[in-house]
Design a protein that fits this description.
Layout lengths: L1 E5 L3 H12 L3 E5 L3 H8 L10 H10 L3 E4 L2 H6 L3 E4 L14 H13 L4 E5 L7 H10 L6 E5 L9 H6 L4 E4 L3 H11 L9 E4 L1 H32 L3 H9 L20 H14 L5 H13 L2 H9 L8 E5 L14 H11 L3 E5 L4 H8 L4 E2 L12 E4 L11 H7 L4 E4 L6 H6 L3 E3 L6
Parallel strand pairs: 1-2, 1-4, 2-3, 4-5, 5-6, 7-8, 9-10, 9-12, 10-11, 12-13, 13-14
Bound molecules: nicotinamide-adenine-dinucleotide.
Nicotinamide-adenine-dinucleotide (NAD) binds next to α1 and α5.
Length: 434
C-alpha cells in the first residue's frame, strides 16, 4: 500500500518506519526542514531504541522516504496518517490547529479515493472536523478513521510491531477493510483489531491514558500515606498487584508522571468533560496530585539537607521524563531543578541520552557531567530522578567517597533503604519511611 504519514515526530516516525518494514511504500512528511534533512541521512531527531536500523534499512530499500512536501506525499498515497502534535491550548483543551491544517492539505492534494486516519490524540468530534476540512477541497471520495496510537516512548518500535490491540474507529466498510489489511502483519499472534464507531475510538485513547495516570497518582498518594503511618509502599504494591483484578503494571510510585502525553491528555479530558457538563472530578484530583508530587523530591531534598538547599551543590541523575527516551517534556527533573535553583542551589546533571535536550532546555543554568559519578564530585547530595538501568546498581562506596555529604534522595525507589542506612547514607525514597 502507498502510505503518507504527516508529522514525523515520535509517533509519525515510528508508524512510518514500522509500516515500511512490513512492505508498504511510506512517505513521511514534516514541515520541519532540519528534521527531514537529518532523516534523509538517517540522523534521527529522537532517541528511540531500535528505530534507527529500521529507518536506515527501509530507506536503503526504497520503501521509506522523507519529504517536506506534504502535498506531494498525499498525492502519492492511498492512506494518509495524521500524526502531528496536539499540544494543550491555554484552557487545557487540545489545540487542533496542526491536525486541521493537515486535513486541509490532504483535501487539496488527494488524487484518488483515500483513507485518512488520525493517529494524533484528539478529542471526540475531531474526526467530524477533519471530514469537514477534507470535504471543502476533496475531488475524490475519502474515508475518515480514528486510529489512536498506544506506543510508549522507550519501547515504541516493539509496541507498534507487537501491539496489545489496535483500535480503529470508522464508519465505512472500505476503511475497515483497508485498515484490517494494513494491520494484519502486526496482529498475527491473535491480538485484536477492535473496530468501533469513531467517537468511541477517539475516547478510548483518552480513557486509556487517564486510567494509567490515575494509577500513578493513586500510588503516589498511597506512598505518601505509607510514609506517615510507617508502612512500606513497595510491600503494598506487591500485595495489591498480585490481585488479578488490579494487576502489577503501572503501580510504581515516583516523582510524578511527565512526558508529552499524560499531562496534556488528562488536562484535555478534564476540559472536555467540563465543557459538556459531565465533569470527571477523579481526573481533576489526579492532575492536582501529580503537580504536588512533582514537588516532593525538592521537599525531601531540603529536609535531608537540614532545612535548606541554599549554597548546596546537587547532583541529579536522570533528566528524561522516563528511562529509554531523551524526551524531557513535562519531566519531573525540570520541576526539581527549577525549585532548587530558585532556592539558591547549584545543579550538576547527568543523563545517559538526554544531555543534548537538557542543554537545549536548560542552557547554562546547570552544569553537565559526562559521567554519572563525575556529577557527584563536590556535591552535597544526589537526587535520582529517572530510573535508567545504569543507576540501578551503582558503586555505593564510590558514591559515598565522592559526595561531600552522604545524602541520597531516590525518586524511583531503586535502592534498599536498610542497605543505604547500613552504608551510612542519609537516604530518602518514596513511601518507604525515612
Ligand atoms: N509521543 C508519544 O509517546 C505519543 C504516543 C501516542 C500518541 N501520541 C500523540 O501523537 C501526536 C504526535 O505526538 P508526537 O510525540 O509524535 O509529537 P512530536 O512533536 O514529536 O511530532 C509532531 C510533528 O508534527 C510536525 N508538524 C506539525 N505541524 C505539521 C504540519 N502542518 N504538517 C506536517 N508536519 C507537521 C512537527 O514538525 C513535528 O515533527 C500527539 O497528538 C500525541 O498526543 C504521542
Amino acid at each position: 500500500m502507498n502510505i503518507a504519514v504527516i508529522g514525523s515526530g515520535y509517533v509519525g516516525l515510528v508508524v512510518g518506519a514500522c509500516l515500511a518494514e512490513t512492505g508498504n511504500t511510506v512517505i513521511c512528511a514534516d514541515v520541519d526542514e532540519r528534521k527531514i534533512e537529518g532523516l534523509k541521512r538517517n540522523v534521527l531527531p529522537i532517541y528511540e531504541p531500535g528505530l534507527e536500523p529500521l529507518v536506515e534499512r527501509n530507506q536503503k530499500q526504497k520503501r521509506l522516504e522523507f519529504t517536506t512536501d506534504v502535498g506531494d506525499a498525499v498525492g502519492r498515497a492511498d492512506v494518509a496518517f495524521i500524526a502531528v502534535g496536539t499540544p494543550p491550548d491555554e484552557d487545557g483543551s487540545a489545540d487542533l490547529r496542526h491536525v486541521l491544517a493537515v486535513a486541509e492539505t490532504i483535501g487539496k492534494h488527494m488524487k484518488r479515493e483515500m483513507v485518512v486516519a488520525t493517529k494524533s490524540t484528539v478529542p471526540v468530534g475531531t474526526a467530524a472536523k477533519v471530514a469537514a476540512k477534507l470535504a471543502a477541497h476533496a475531488k475524490h471520495p475519502f474515508h475518515v478513521c480514528s486510529n489512536p496510537e498506544f506506543l510508549k516512548e522507550g519501547s515504541a518500535v516493539d509496541d507498534f510491531m507487537y501491539p496489545d490491540r489496535v483500535i480503529v474507529g470508522m464508519d465505512s466498510d472500505f476503511a475497515r477493510s483497508v485498515m484490517a489489511e494494513l494491520y494484519a502483519p502486526f496482529v498475527r499472534t491473535g491480538k485484536p483489531i477492535i473496530f468501533m464507531d469513531i467517537p468511541s475510538a477517539e475516547m478510548t485513547k483518552y480513557a486509556a491514558n487517564a486510567m494509567l495516570a490515575t494509577r500513578i497518582s493513586f500510588m503516589n498518594q498511597m506512598a505518601n500515606l505509607c510514609e506517615q503511618v510507617g508502612a512500606n509502599v513497595d510491600m503494598v504494591r506487591r500485595g495489591i498487584g498480585s490481585d488479578g483484578r488490579i494487576g502489577a503494571s503501572f503501580l510504581f510510585p515516583g516523582p510524578g508522571y511527565g512526558g508529552s502525553c499524560f499531562p496534556k491528555d488528562v488536562k484535555a479530558l478534564v476540559r472536555t468533560a467540563q465543557d459538556v457538563g459531565a465533569p470527571i472530578e477523579i481526573l481533576e484530583a489526579v492532575e492536582e496530585v501529580n503537580e504536588r508530587q512533582k514537588k516532593r523530591l525538592f521537599e525531601k531534598l531540603t529536609k535531608a539537607l537540614g532545612g535548606s538547599v541554599k549554597g548546596a551543590r546537587i547532583a541529579v541523575w536522570g533528566l528524561a521524563f522516563k528511562a529509554k527516551t531523551d524526551d524531557m517534556r513535562e519531566a519531573p527533573s525540570l520541576t526539581l531543578i527549577d525549585q532548587a535553583l530558585d532556592a539558591g542551589a547549584k545543579i550538576v546533571a547527568h543523563d545517559p541520552v538526554a544531555m543534548e535536550e537538557a542543554k537545549r532546555r536548560l542552557g547554562d543554568r546547570v552544569d553537565y557531567a559526562e559521567d554519572n559519578y563525575e556529577a557527584l564530585a563536590g556535591a552535597d547530595a544526589l537526587v535520582v530522578v529517572t530510573d535508567w538501568n545504569e543507576y540501578r546498581h551503582p558503586d555505593f562506596g564510590r558514591i559515598k567517597a565522592t559526595l561531600k555529604r552522604p545524602v541520597v534522595v531516590d525518586g524511583r525507589n531503586l535502592y534498599d533503604p536498610a542497605k543505604m542506612q547500613q552504608l551510612g547514607f542519609t537516604y530518602a525514597s518514596i513511601g518507604r519511611g525515612s
